[in-house]
Structure formats: structure tokens, C-alpha cells
């Protein structure tokens, strides 16, 4: 087979891919996207996971490590089997937030942080570059195989120019179909359809080679099994640590590899496609790997020992004279390489332009963004070229000498450093920017130190001495034996330490940081994506001019798309023309639209410049605060409600108790008043009858009986007066007679009036004459009545052996309290509530002559005087506190 | 048959009025003003009839009556109760405790004399 | 009578749906266990040159692919049923039927509502 033929076949194949992509783009633009967007195409597009590493390298890997190569497929299969856990949420978030890349996901999740986006982009570039180099290497190697396989037909081509041609061709393809549209969130129908076609080609090619080897060469399944068991493959021990570590790493890599994120999330058209891919993609992977061991076993037994096992897929058919099959295999490998490189380049270019170039551009040219659309497109095109250029440089520099699989794994472990921040971010609201940055940076540093830099070989980047003795002779910092743990496989060692450092930093950083409002808002949006698939409410009450926004949108989206968007919005608002009201809704939608092109952080910043002038709006803050406040308010409300309920219940119980007691009292009201009236009347009647029929009565007795009648009549009058008094006070008819009076005089008057003879004369009244020197403006007679009542009560009821009454006066600003405290047994707590009610004599046997109206009258009087009277518990006796204003303003009334 | 009456009443004026009219009628009159010690006073004085006020300091007249009726020595002792409350409920209550006669204040002197005499006679 | 039937029917459907989701969540765990079985296999003897030191690699490979195929089949069975209940056009335009259905199952965890 001539070199020219090989090149022309390649060119025809590339032309075919261009054709498919072009056709798909045109179909899509005319709306016929239905089957282009079937779950089958989605599943096939995921096959970019299987790169040339898989296509060629798996056989080499298997021949060196036995079954271990399967881990690279088992990990992703498990992730897809568990799609309901993570992938579904990732896709939902990607769609609702218009995420453009893995860097955008993380940037957006952690408060639209430009810094994190940049970090992730850098890691992605560093992690992907070796991978791209790997693809270039495999394609050039495969060219070389044909040259060697047909001796004399054409000279072995110089590898470097071949690699340049390959890289250049891929760059052109990626630029043509990957940057047609500036909206990175929009589906790349052409590219996706082309890689789906390539997926079929590589599967078909590998299956064809496998079937040929098993049935054509080995002679069926049985003989192949025998050959496998007899080969040296069966003597390769299974490294258990690597088995576990690689399943983990490859599964995690599926989620965060830039190109996988691109096809899994960004290009996803419909969540239901995931349901299909969940089983179809693992099936694809299984089919891609099922013939690997047979090919390796047969290749090792048939080909000379110097043959590179990485190329058995090509060299075995060639050795058996199957040129066409070899060509097909070549196309399969070519497909694997190109599809991976193209998608990776597009994904990386989007990340570079959105998270590195644009923020720099915006900060350099503050205020005048210029034609952003052109900037973006140029940035992306240059980035694609740059990424491929980097890959080429790496390929040339690393000499292309190392095993494919090793490079692949190293770059996997690097990219996986993004995983804790990404997965943690969508499940844990407490994850913060600081934690994410710390985890990613530390993990990446450990990866670089323990795996990436050593992979170039001892003494290439890291000096030999470092490996043997550690930096500055610190033994426990040796790159491949951290903390003195030696003997681990370098990959397992790197995975354990980098992930441990990463997760620890992520957790600690998150726990100790307090996130900014926007970050908390985004956290809630991501973690609770199923609850509210609406975007964050970013814009309110904006001062943005619709025209400014249109100008900006045109620069980013292109004039037509921007005008369509604005006109559509205006129509929705019921307006004609292109300038809708800049409602919060519209700004949200516009931001999301722009985010699809330039990433969330930039879009937010740009609209912020025009609309509000700050990146975080008051509304953002309020949304975050509102969320917390809602919960708080809710619980406070509940708390308040229950407090109120128990307070009400307490009040009701209180009222009920009082009512019951009062009703008992009211019930005996008639009995009371009857008793109070009838007792004096009994004496009066009895004595008057005695007087009436008493003729022979001595004058002394007659005199005495008449006096009794008189006294009892007076007692009746007093009682009736008290009742009348109370009634007048209660109905507010009593006029006040205001005058200025000295408290000392008033109390003196009251003490004198209660008398120091008769019952209770033994009561010692202790006064504080100095404190009593207060001038009041009040109704002196009424107040004296109160004092008399209280002092009389003390005289009557104080049951101490040496009864004593203290009168304590205190001033509190414009108010005055006068406490009357005796040293008796006081009033029982259950009685304290009713003593101010009418007829509430506490026992039936109280001293004669009291109707139980005194304190009720006191309360009424003090109410009139703008004061109050209360029972003061805990004073070691009965204690009443009278509170008074120094000057009653109500005096005039 | 003696005519000894014990007045258990805390209003001094009422006690004095009754003492006067009963003494004039030839009764031996003793009086007691405290409810708490009234039962002991009854057993000490061994009167032929007791006049018992309902509202007494220390103890209510009803309780005293119940104690008197529980004691075999005073079970059949005639007791006349006096009350100033004069409600139907009070009368029913007194009768349920076994009062001999229930009288409402204010009373006529003649009525008191007739009642006490008939109580002693029966 | 016929008015009472639909709720019963729907209830049973959503119950099935939740069990399907449970199953879907368990598959990867089960799969991981299957793929960890190789850790238990005895290692080939390194010093042996001939047949005695070797293991039945073909059989082991067969085990892994059979497990793989079984998982694919089970997932296919579950996912295709779940798929029909997912929203036709999921967000950005927010709540649709499928999402509401998930909301129920996702929230408190379906198992509570047995």
C-alpha cells in the first residue's frame, strides 16, 4: 500500500466527515434536527471517551498489565449505571444554568467566580495537552506502521511533519464546525454528528479486527481461550491497588474531563437521552474492549517480541496480508484520535476564551468592550490552534517515546482534581469558593509533584537527588514516597495523596469560609436544581437602557440573534419594535443567553456594568437573605404562634380562675350585702323592741340601748356610703378635686385617722419622714382615703405578735411608689388576685363592720388619680404598693 | 327542767340584746363569741338549748352543728340557728345538718322567746 | 365507581416509579461489588514458567464481561422504563410533569412512602 494511497484515503475520510458535519449543520438550521438528536447519536457522541489510547493503547496496556486495562472502562460504566445519582443532576444544572464547560460549572457554582474558572481552565489545559499529544503520536505511529509494513514502497515519513499535518487538519475542522456560533452552549450539530459517525467507524473497525483475529486467525472461541490461558498474559499479577484506584479515577474523569463534560452536559439536548446512554454507552465500552485480550494474546504469540503491542491492531491484519482490514483499523484509530482532539479543542477553547481571555480583555479595556463577538470568535479560534499547538510541542518535546496508557492515566489523575469541587458543589450547599480553590490547587500541586513532573523521568524536570533524598534532604517529602510510605505504585500513591489533600482542603476551606451572597445563591440553585429550575433572580429595578443592552448583546451574540431576542421579548411584553422594557425577567433571560456565549461570570459582570454598575445586585443579596429570612421568619412565626397560644391559654386559664372565684363571690353578693345590712338592723330592731315595751327599765340601760341603736344606724349609713362611693367611682362620675399637697402630711393624716386607740392600736407605724418630703399634685382627700383604708386593713388583719407597718416611699422619675408593708402572715397567693374585687373579704369571720369594699374602692380611686395599687408579694407580710404620678394631668377634668 | 341557753354569737350588740330579753324571761344565759372553741363551750356549759350564729370567727356555724350532732351527748340538744344571709340555700343546708330551728335576722324578740320556749318544752 | 379508580391506579404507578428509582440507584453499587470480585482472585505464581503458575485468564475475562453484560441489561430495563416518565422537554422552561414526579420521589426519599 503506497503512502499516497494512505494519505488520500485519509483525506477522503476527512472529506466525508466534513460532509457529514456540513450536512448536519444545514439540516439543523432548517429545523430537521429530530433524528440528529436521537439518544443514539448522544450515546455515540460519548464515545469520544474512547480515544486512540483505547483503540491502539488498550491492547498494549493489556499485554503489559493483563486485565487492568478494563478499569478504564469499568469506572465510566459504573457512573453511567448510576446516572440517576450524579449525571442527571449535572445535566439538569447544565441546562438550567446554561453551563458552557466544566470550568463554567465550577465558576458559576461558586458565585460566578472568575478566579476559579481560570484555575480550572489551566488545570484542564495542563491535563489535556499530554492527551492531545498522545493522539498525535498514535496517528503518526500508525502512519509509520504502514511504511514499515510495506518495505520499499515508501520511505518512513518523518514523524514531525506528519504530526503537524494531522494537528493542522484537526484544528481546521474544529475551527470550522466548533466556532461557527459564538454561543458555546448551543449544540454543535455538525461536530456531534460527525463524531457519532466516527464512533461507528471505530467500533466497526475494532470489532472487525477482533472477529478476524478470533475466528480468522485463532480458529474460534475455544482455541482463543486456550491461547490466552497459555500466553504470558495469564502470568501477570493483578495489582489490586491500581485496580481500585483506576476504577475510581476513570469514573471521576468521565464527569470532569473537559471533552466529556462537553458531550455529556453541554451538548445534551434532552435529559431522557441519559436514560438510553446509561446502558448503551457501557455496552459500547464493553464491545470496544471485548476483543482486546484476544488481540493481545494472539499478537504476542504471532508477532516478533520487538513488535510494539500498542500497534497490534494494525500490525496483526498486516501480518496476515489483510491490507483492507488494516486500512479500516487505521481509519478507526484515526477516528478515535480526531474526534477526541476536536471535541477537546472546542471544549478547551471555550474555557480559555471565556475564563481567561475575556476577563483579561474586559479588565484591560474597561468601559469600552468593543466588538466582543469578534474578540470571542478570534479567541476561540486562536485557542483551538493554541491547544493543538501545545499538544504538538508536548509531543515533540516528550519524544513520543512513552507508552500511551501511562500518559492517559497521568492526565486523568490531573483532571480528576476538579471532581471534588464539582460533585461537592452540586450536592453540598456548604461548599464554598475558598474550599473549592484550595482543594483544586492543592490537589493539582500534589499531582504535579508526585506524578506529572516525575513522569518525564528522573533528572528531566525534577533532579535525581529529589527522588532519592527529597527536597532539601527532607526524606518524607520525596515525590513518590510522601510521608515515608514507600513501595506504592506511583499512580496509586498520587491518587491517594492528591485526593486526600484535595478533599481535606476542600472540606476545611468550605467549612471555615463564609460565602458571599451570590455564592450562596448559586449554591442553592445548584444543589436544589430540581426544586427551582428557574435561574437566579439577578436583576431588578434596573436603570439599564434597553438600547445599551442591545448594543452589548449584538457584540456578543451577533446582530441578528440579538435583535431577534430583543424583538421577541418586546413582543412578549406587548410592545412593538426592538426595545423591550428592561424587566428583571428580561435581564435574567438575557444574562443566561449571554452566559451561553461568554460564561456565567462574564455575562453577569457585563450586564452588571450596564444594568446596575455592580456585580452583585441588591436583589441577589435579598434573594439570599430572603431565603434565610424566610426560614427564620417561618420558625419565628411558628414560635410566636405557639408562644401566643400558650400565652392565650394562660390568660384564659387565669381569666377562668378569676371568673370562677368572682362568680362564687358574685353568687354570695346578695348574701354578703344582706349580711352586712341585716346585722346592724338586727341590733336596731331588737333594742327598739326592748325600748318599746320596757316600762320599768332603768334610765341607764335605756340610755345605753339608744346609743347602740344610734351606732348601728351609723354603721348602716357608712356601709351605704361606701357602696355609693364605689358605684360612683366605678361609673366615672366622681369629680376630682386637685390640690398641691405634701405626702408627709397626707400619710400623717391617714395614720391619725385610723386611730391609735381601739382594735389594732398596737400597730407600730414606721415611716421615712425624709423620703416622704415630696410635693404632689393630686386629689388629696381621695388619696388619704386610700391610705386610711390600707392602714386600717393592717390594723385589722396584721396578726403578728408585735404588729408593725413600714411605709416606704420611692421616686421613679415622674412617678412615686408608696409601699405599705406589715409583718403579718400576708395574703395567700391564690387570694392575691381577688383582694381588689368587691366583697372579697378573705374569710367569713373577718372583723365586723367591714364590707370588703375598701380595696375595691382604693383601686378605683387610684385609677382615677392616674396611678395603681398592687399586692407586692414576697415582702414577709402583707404589702401593698401604691403607684402615683407626681402630677396628674387629668386634674382639670 | 331548767332553762339554760347558750348564745354562740360574735356580734356583741346582738348578744347583748338577746341576753337582755332572755334574762327578762327568766332564762339562764351564757354566751360564747368564738367559733373554734364553741363545741367545747357547749359540752362545758351543758345548756338546754343553743342559739348558733352561722357566721362566726374561727369556724362556721354549720361545722359546729355537725359536730354537735355527731356527739352522742349533744345529739338531741335543741339548736336554733341565726343567720343574716337569709337565703333559701342556707336554710336547706342547716336543716340537712339537723337544725332544730332556723331563724333569719333581724328577728322579733317575741319570736325568739316563743321558739326557745317551745324547743325546751318538747 | 369509575371515579374512584384513577387515583388508585396513579398511586400504584408512582409507587412503581419510586421503586424503579430505588433500583436505578442500587445498580451502580451492585455493579461495583461485582467489579471488586477480582480483588479476591488468587494471584498467579510469579516464579512459575509453565502452566501451573498460570490462571484461567479467559475465564476471568469471561466473568467480567458477563457481569458487565448483566448490568447493561438490568440498567437498560430500568432506564427505559424511567425514561418514559421523564419530562419530554426538561428545563429551562421550568416545571413539567416529569419534574413534578421526580420532586415527589427525590424529596424525602421514596422509601418513606411505602
Spell out the CATH superfamily of chain B. Response regulator
Give the % helix of chain B.
Answer: 40-55%
Structural class of chain B: alpha/beta
Identify the biggest protein-protein contact and residues per side: A-C, 54 and 53 residues
**Total of helices of chain C:** 3
- Global morphology of chain C: elongated
Low-pLDDT sequence parts of chain C: 1-8, 88-114
Q: Are there runs of chain B of 5+ residues with pLDDT below 50, and where?
A: none
Pfam family, one (chain B): Response_reg
Protein name (chain B): Response regulator
Keywords (chain B): Phosphoprotein
Modified residues (4-aspartylphosphate) (chain B): 53
Tell me what you see in this structure:
The complex is a heterotrimer of chains A (893), B (122) and C (114). Chain A has 893 residues and is mainly α. Chain A is built from 34 helices and 7 strands. Chain A has 4 domains: 399 residues, Sodium/glucose cotransporter; 63 residues, no CATH class; 48 residues; 158 residues, Histidine kinase-like ATPase, C-terminal domain (Heat Shock Protein 90). In chain A, the strands form 2 sheets. Chain A has a 5-stranded mixed sheet with strand order 2-4-5-7-6, with helices on one face. Chain A has a two-stranded antiparallel sheet with strand order 1-3. Chain A starts with a helix and ends in an 8-residue tail after the last strand. Chain B is an alpha/beta fold. Chain B has a single domain, classed as Response regulator (Rossmann fold). In chain B, strands 2-1-3-4-5 form a 5-stranded parallel sheet, with helices on both faces. In chain B, α1 links the parallel β1 and β2. Chain B is globular. The mean pLDDT of chain B is 87. Chain C is mostly helical. Chain C is built from 3 helices and no strands. Chain C starts with a helix and ends in a 7-residue tail after the last helix. The N terminus and C terminus of chain C are likely disordered. The chains are: A mainly alpha (893), B alpha/beta (122), C mainly alpha (114). At the A-C interface, α4, α5, α10, α11 and α13 of A face α1, α2 and α3 of C. Chain B: InterPro entries: Bact_response_regulator (IPR050595), CheY-like_superfamily (IPR011006), Sig_transdc_resp-reg_receiver (IPR001789). Chain B: This is Response regulator. Chain B: Keywords: Phosphoprotein. Chain B: Pfam families: Response_reg (PF00072). Chain A: It catalyses: ATP + protein L-histidine = ADP + protein N-phospho-L-histidine.
